[in-house]
């Protein structure tokens, strides 16, 4: 099943929302944003800088095979959705975007470093790597939910 259109649409939505939020930030500052909006800005930055931006002269970024593209976008979307879910829930424990960013720092670093996976791997290798990272992100959010 081809999931690329779903992840592409999700990424576009994040970037479009960021564009809308940038106007607010320019007028009244980032502090006026809600926690879920701060999350959107930060995830959009990851999409732009770590997913879309490429360096054609590097060993890891001169091309991006479909398996790597799908895996990277899936990890970003799972991270974004997990954060939005935590930020949007009603409970005694309220989380801020900064709380989530600090608690998931190892996963955030892995997400930022996904682009360094060398492109000449098999789709099975990409699937294994990105499935493991997706599971790690989901488990980190599950642990955060239990706290």
Written description of the protein model:
The protein has 147 residues and is mostly helical. Helix content is 71%, strand content 0%. It is built from 6 helices and no strands. It is globular. The mean pLDDT is 93.
Task: Give the gist of this structure.
The chain has 147 residues and is an all-alpha fold. The chain contains six helices and no strands.
Question: What attributes does this structure have?
Answer:
147 residues, 6 helices, 0% strand
Mean pLDDT: 93
Number of helices: 6
Query: How far is the first residue's CA from the last residue's CA?
Result: 36 Å
Assembly category: single chain
Largest sheet descriptor: none
Structural classification: mainly alpha
If you compute it from the alpha carbons, what radius of gyration comes out, rounded to the nearest whole angstrom?
A: 16 Å
- Globally, the shape reads globular
Helix content: over 70%
Beta strands, count: 0
SS strand fraction: under 5%
Q: Please provide the ordered H/E string of secondary-structure elements.
A: HHHHHH
Low-confidence parts = none
Please give the structural blueprint.
Elements: H1 4-28, H2 35-52, H3 66-88, H4 97-103, H5 105-112, H6 123-146
